[in-house]
Specification:
4 strands; four-stranded mixed sheet; alpha+beta; about 325 residues; about 55% helix
Length: about 325
């Protein structure tokens, strides 16, 4: 039994967590999938829950401390840091806090941009995974305080906020283009005499306040309001919300939203495409960073070698 390692596994939302005792990384994947309810035929990636480090090497796995916590990810899922409070529903609690700020005296609480600034300090690429609400929060943050939290000079913080504003403007332009296209298609349908009953278009209207959410769905009221009442909701959702929508699947989302198969399928495809786009951007940024670090390392090694070559003749002449 000395070669068996006690550890913990969880899914990407951290809502499910189990303790295991396994002898190897492969056994961790097998048992972890079984406990978390994953299909054994689907490939999974093992990462450290606290910082997202990918664990692929068996020797590295065996060197990790006992009771290390791992996260198992499917292909469309990505690690993200635990936000503000412990527990699997931390990101959901954050959304709830945002909804209740008007009713709760938050004078002693930290501004919401502080948590987002900490994420950026750990990894600037996390900008890609942020929702429009998160980006707007950073744009509206006091520039000197934001610069201090990030460890930037104030000029660099100004440049960052301007870049975030351009990202928001681009997303808004994309949304307006989609809305114009939808209006055009509706006009064509009307000209062709294919008008639908008035009750059908009204199904996509804004969701009233206080909408009830099925406790089994795991969605917050704010997320459902965005899904039902906004055009191009995929661009307004956080990456965690997109992952949750995609992971639920067609049948479950039909029940949650109360839509027909065609409309629900279109929403899932849009969410999956947006999620894939963001993950590709993250991988591209990480690849650029890795190549830059490798190039700096090679240049440093070359410089050290040249310095040694210069010092060696000088020492020999003495």
């Amino acid at each position: 039994m000395t070669d068996r390692k006690p550890c913990k596994v969880c899914n990407f939302t951290r809502q499910k967590s189990y303790g295991l005792v396994v002898p190897s990384l492969d056994e961790l994947k097998v048992k972890g999938c079984e406990f978390l309810g994953f299909s054994p035929s689907e490939p999974v990636t093992v990462v450290l829950e606290d910082d997202g480090t990918i664990v692929e090497d068996e020797a590295y796995f065996l060197c990790l401390p006992l009771n290390t916590k791992f996260m198992l990810l499917h292909d469309k899922e990505a690690w993200s840091p635990l936000r503000r409070m412990d527990g699997g529903t931390a990101w959901m609690a954050r959304d709830s806090m945002m909804l209740e700020t008007d009713a709760v005296d938050a004078s002693s609480a930290e501004p919401p941009w502080v948590d987002l600034a900490q994420q950026l300090k750990q990894d600037l690429a996390s900008i890609i995974l942020m929702s429009e609400a998160d980006l707007q929060t950073l744009v509206d943050a006091p520039c000197p305080e934001l610069a201090s939290a990030l460890g930037f000079q104030e000029k660099r913080a100004v440049d960052l906020q301007e870049t975030l504003q351009r990202v928001l403007d681009r997303r808004e332009e994309e949304r307006q283009s989609k809305e114009l296209l939808q209006l055009y298609l509706k006009a064509v349908e009307q000209e062709d005499g294919q008008q639908e009953e008035p009750s059908q278009p009204s199904q996509g209207g804004d969701v009233p306040d206080g909408v009830e959410v099925d406790s089994a769905s795991g969605f917050m009221s704010r997320t459902l309001m965005v899904l039902k009442g906004k055009s191009s909701p995929e661009s307004r959702l956080s990456t965690e919300d997109l992952q949750l929508v995609v992971s639920r699947g067609l049948e479950a989302m039909e029940q949650v939203l109360g839509w027909d198969t065609t409309r629900t399928s279109a929403l899932l495809q849009a969410c999956e495409a947006e999620l894939t786009r963001r993950l590709q951007l993250v991988r591209a940024v990480q690849s650029i960073r890795s190549n830059a670090e490798l190039e700096r390392s090679q240049q440093s090694s070359k410089k050290n070698a040249e310095e040694r070559d210069v010092e060696t003749p000088a020492q020999g002449s003495n």
